[in-house]
Design a protein that fits this description.
The protein is α/β, with parallel strands linked by helices and 776 residues long. It contains 28 helices and 24 strands. The protein starts with a strand and ends with a helix.
Length: 776
C-alpha cells in the first residue's frame, strides 16, 4: 500500500491563534502557561486533522512559537554570549523568555540586548533567525521541545515523525561572528548533541525521523559535499534501528543526485514540483537499493489545485518500477507556506466561487496527497472517484476561463520597446536636478513608509467593511491621522516625509485590491516571521490598473506641507513574489504586466506634484533561483520589470526603492542596474555588515542603511545610531548616505516609534555637525 507523508503543517492556527497569543504574551495580557497551552492546542488540532485525512507519516516538531531555525539553536544550546544572563535562569518560563529575547531583543530590568539577525528562508517570504557561531562554540541539549511534542502526540495515540533541521544545513544557515574558522568546522562538536537528541527520541518510541537538508538541492562546494557521507554515517551508526527520511525541497538534486543516493538513509524525499525532471536521473540509482522514495507531487508553496492526471503520470511509473512498499506520496515541501483551510472562505464577494474552485489550502492538499496515493494504486472508493472527477473538471474550467485572459493587456506587453525601461538621463545628471528641486541636507532623513497601525486604525477599516462606518466617516478619520503624522514629522525635522499609509492593509494586498486579475481571501493567512502573518492575494489572471491607487492620499499629505512627501508603491517583483501567482504562464510575463500597472501609478503621482516616489522591492533577492545556472535569466527580467515601473518620470523626480533582510553580494551589480536614485536597506541587525557589498562594488547611487531594527520593540539610543552611521560613513561617501529605519513601522507602537525616530533625527544632525567641523 502506498503510504502518505507530510513534511510540515501551518503552525499559526486557522484563525491566527498563535499570532494573537504571542502578542498577548508579549504585552503581558496572558501568562506563559496560557501561551504554552495555545501552542499545544494548535499542535493537537494539526495532528488530528492529518490523522482524520489518513496521512501515514504525520510530522511533529514542525510547530514553532517563532521560527524553526531559532528552535534548533535553542535545542542545541547555540545561545550567543549576550543572552547568557537570561540563559542561566532555570525553568520553562525563562526558556521562553530567552527564546523571545533572541528573536526580538530584550530591554527590561536593566538588561538591554539586541535581537539576532533575521533573513529569508531560501527563496520564500518566510524569515528565519540566523544562528550565530564563534570559534570555540559549544553545544548542549538545552531544550527538549522536539521530545516534548513527540510525547504529546503519542498521548493522542499518534506516533509522529519528528522533524529536525539537518546538521549541515543548520550550520550553513548561520554566520561566523569572529574570524579564523568556518562554521562547518563545528560539525564534530554538534554531532554528539544531535545524536543525543536522536537517542532520546528513539527511547520515547520514535520510528522515523525527518532530517531536512535543503542545501542538498543547492550548489555545493567540495568541502560541503565531502561532509555529507561522514555526517550521515555517524548518525546511522549512533542510532541503530532508527529510520531516517532525508528531505530535500525547493529544487531538484541535479548534480547532487549521486551524493544524496549514497547516504545511509531509509527514505529520500524529492520535490517534484520544483524539480520534476529529476525522476529520470533517479531511476538508475534505485535498482539495487532498498531506499523508499517520497514523491513531493503536491505543491507546498502555491494554492492551485493539484492536477491529478499530471501527478499520476509521474507517480505510476515509479510505483510500477519500485512497488507500492517503496513509494510515498507527499507535498513538495512543508505546508507552512500556504494558508490553513479553504473551507473557511465562504464570502464570494471576496473570493468568487469560480476562482475558489481552482484552489487548495493546506487541509485540502492533505486530501490531494491521499487521493493521489489511492488513485495510483487503483484501489478507488466512490468518494475518491468523485473528487478525481471534480478535479478534472476544475482543471478544464480554469484552462478555458474568460476571467483570466485579456487581449489589451497582452498587446501592451508585446509593444514594450527598446528604451522603455530606461530613465532619460544618468544618475549623476538626475542627482543634480533632484538636489535643486528638493534642497536636501547632508544625511537626509526619511522613514520607509508606514507608521504604526494602532488598534483604532485597524478597527476603522473593519467598521468600514461591516458598514458601521460610512466611507465619508472613514476618510475623515484617516485624514486626521495623516495630518497628525505629517505635522509630527515636520516638527521633528525629518527631511522627506511619508503620509503613513493608514488607509492600507498590506503592502501587496492593498494594490491587488485595485488591480484587475486579483482575488482575495478572508482567512488565507501565511506566517512571514514570528507573529507577523500576511494574506497573499490570488493573482489568477492578466493584470491591469483601472484607476489611480495611491494618488489621493499622497497628494492630500503633500498639500499639508512644503516638505517633500514620498509616494509609496510596492514594486512589480515584490507584488509577484508575495502573491499566490498563476502558474499557467511564465512569471516574467506576469511581472511585466504588474510593472506597467505600477508605471501608470508612478506617472500619475508625478503629475499630482509628488517629486519623491518609493517603489519597494524587498522581495527581489527572495525571487532569485537557488541554482546559479538559473539566476541570470531571472535577474534580467526582474531588473527590467523594476525599471519599466520607474522610468516614465522626469529627471527631477527622485525614485527610491527599499530592500530588507537579504544578502546582496551576489546580485549587487543587478541592484545597481535597477538604477534607483536612492536604495534603503536593512543593515541594523547585521551591524552594517550588509553594507560591505555596496562598498566593495562602489555602488554609484545613494544608499540609506537602516540604523535601527524595527522588528524589535527595543528603542536604540542616539549614540547607538551614530555609531552605526559612522561605520557606514567609513565605507560609503557621506554625500551618498541617507538616514532611515530598516523597514516600515506599521507593526510598532507609537511611543517606541516616536522615541526611536527622534533619536534617529538627532543622530543625523550629529553626523552633519561632525562633517561640518571637519570641513571648517
Amino acid at each position: 500500500m502506498l503510504r502518505t507523508n507530510n513534511l510540515g503543517y501551518p503552525r499559526i492556527g486557522a484563525q491566527r491563534e498563535l499570532k494573537k497569543a504571542n502578542e498577548a504574551f508579549w504585552s503581558g495580557k496572558i501568562s506563559r502557561r496560557e501561551l504554552l497551552d495555545v501552542g499545544l492546542k494548535i499542535c493537537q488540532t494539526n495532528w488530528e486533522i492529518q490523522r482524520s485525512v489518513g496521512i501515514d507519516l504525520i510530522p511533529s516538531n514542525d510547530f514553532s512559537f517563532y521560527d524553526q531555525v531559532l528552535d534548533t539553536s535553542l535545542t542545541f544550546g547555540a545561545i550567543p554570549q549576550r543572552y547568557h544572563a537570561l540563559a542561566d535562569k532555570k525553568g520553562v518560563e525563562h526558556e521562553l523568555e530567552l527564546y523571545f529575547a533572541m528573536a526580538r531583543g530584550y530591554q527590561q530590568e536593566g538588561v538591554d540586548v539586541t535581537a539576532m539577525e533575521m533573513t529569508k528562508w531560501f527563496d520564500t517570504n518566510y524569515h528565519y533567525i540566523v544562528p550565530e557561531f564563534v570559534k570555540n562554540q559549544s553545544f548542549s541539549l538545552f531544550s527538549e521541545k522536539a521530545i516534548n511534542e513527540f510525547y504529546e502526540a503519542k498521548k493522542m495515540g499518534i506516533i509522529t515523525k519528528p522533524v529536525l533541521l539537518g546538521p549541515i544545513t543548520y550550520l550553513l544557515l548561520g554566520k561566523e561572528k569572529e574570524a579564523g574558522f568556518h562554521r562547518l568546522d563545528l560539525i564534530d562538536k554538534l554531532l554528539p548533541v544531535y545524536n543525543q537528541l536522536l537517542s532520546k527520541l528513539k527511547a520515547h518510541g520514535a520510528e522515523w525521523v525527518q532530517i531536512d537538508e535543503p542545501f542538498l538541492a543547492l550548489d555545493l562546494d567540495d568541502k560541503t559535499k565531502s561532509l555529507y557521507p561522514k555526517v550521515f554515517s555517524q548518525l546511522k551508526q549512533a542510532n541503530p534501528g532508527l529510520k531516517f527520511v532525508l528531505t530535500t525541497y525547493f529544487e531538484g538534486l541535479r548534480d547532487n543526485t549521486d551524493l544524496a543516493f549514497s547516504l545511509p538513509v531509509n527514505a529520500l524525499h524529492l520535490d517534484l514540483v520544483r524539480g520534476e525532471g529529476q525522476l529520470q536521473s533517479v531511476f538508475p540509482k534505485l535498482k539495487n537499493k532498498d531506499l523508499v522514495l517520497s514523491l513531493g507531487v503536491v505543491d507546498g508553496r502555491n494554492i492551485w489545485k493539484n492536477d491529478y492526471e499530471s501527478s499520476l503520470g509521474l507517480v505510476r511509473p515509479v510505483v510500477d518500477e519500485l512497488g507500492s512498499n517503496r513509494v510515498w506520496i507527499a507535498p513538495s515541501c512543508s505546508l507552512l507556506h500556504v494558508p490553513c483551510d479553504l473551507d473557511l472562505e465562504t464570502d464570494e464577494a471576496i473570493l468568487p466561487a469560480t476562482v475558489k474552485n481552482w484552489l487548495a489550502f493546506a487541509k485540502q492538499k492533505l486530501t490531494e496527497v491521499k487521493d493521489i496515493a489511492v488513485l495510483a494504486e487503483g484501489r478507488v472508493d466512490e468518494a475518491t472517484q468523485a473528487r478525481a472527477l471534480a478535479n478534472k473538471e476544475a482543471q478544464e474550467d480554469r484552462s478555458t476561463s474568460k476571467l483570466i485572459h485579456h487581449d489589451a493587456v497582452k498587446q501592451r506587453i508585446a509593444s514594450i520597446g527598446k528604451g522603455d525601461d530606461q530613465r532619460k538621463s544618468t544618475f549623476a545628471v538626475r542627482k543634480q536636478k533632484q538636489q535643486q528641486a528638493l534642497g536636501l541636507p547632508l544625511f537626509p532623513t526619511t522613514t520607509i513608509g508606514s507608521f504604526p497601525q494602532t488598534k483604532e486604525v485597524r478597527s476603522w477599516r473593519a467598521q468600514l467593511k461591516k458598514g458601521s462606518l460610512t466611507a465619508e466617516q472613514y476618510n475623515d478619520l484617516i485624514r486626521k491621522e495623516t495630518e497628525e503624522a505629517v505635522h509630527w514629522q515636520e516638527s521633528l525635522g525629518i527631511d522627506v516625509l511619508v503620509h503613513g499609509e493608514f488607509e492600507r492593509n498590506d503592502m501587496v494586498e492593498y494594490f491587488g485590491e485595485q488591480l484587475q486579475g486579483y482575488a482575495f481571501t478572508k482567512n488565507g493567512w501565511v506566517q512571514s516571521y514570528g507573529s507577523r502573518c500576511v494574506k497573499p492575494p490570488v493573482l489568477y489572471g492578466d493584470v491591469s490598473r483601472p484607476k489611480d491607487m495611491t494618488v489621493f492620499w499622497t497628494a492630500f499629505a503633500q498639500s499639508l506641507t512644503k516638505l517633500p512627501v514620498k509616494g509609496m508603491l510596492t514594486g512589480p517583483v515584490t507584488i509577484l513574489q508575495w502573491s499566490f501567482v498563476r502558474n499557467d504562464q511564465p512569471r516574467s510575463e506576469t511581472a511585466f504586466q504588474i510593472a506597467l500597472a505600477i508605471r501608470d501609478e508612478v506617472v500619475a503621482l508625478e503629475k499630482a506634484g509628488i517629486k519623491v516616489i518609493q517603489i519597494d522591492e524587498p522581495a527581489i533577492r527572495e525571487g532569485l533561483p537557488l541554482r546559479k545556472a538559473d539566476q541570470q535569466n531571472y535577474l534580467e527580467w526582474a531588473v527590467k520589470a523594476f525599471r519599466l515601473s520607474a522610468s516614465g518620470v522626469g529627471d527631477d523626480t527622485q525614485i527610491h526603492t527599499h530592500m530588507c533582510y537579504s544578502e546582496f553580494n551576489d546580485i549587487i551589480a543587478h541592484i545597481a542596474a535597477m538604477d534607483a536614485d536612492v536604495i534603503t536597506i536593512e543593515t541594523s541587525r547585521s551591524q552594517m555588515e550588509l553594507l560591505d557589498a555596496f562598498a566593495d562594488f562602489s555602488y554609484p547611487n545613494d544608499i540609506g542603511p537602516g540604523v535601527y531594527d524595527i522588528h524589535s520593540p527595543r528603542v536604540p539610543s542616539k549614540e547607538e545610531m551614530v555609531f552605526l552611521l559612522e561605520k557606514a560613513k567609513a565605507v560609503i561617501p557621506a554625500e551618498q548616505l541617507w538616514v532611515n529605519p530598516d523597514c516600515g513601522l506599521k507593526t510598532r507602537a507609537w511611543p517606541e516609534t516616536k522615541a526611536a525616530i527622534e533619536a534617529m533625527v538627532a543622530a543625523a544632525k550629529t553626523l552633519r555637525e561632525s562633517v561640518q567641523e571637519t570641513v571648517d
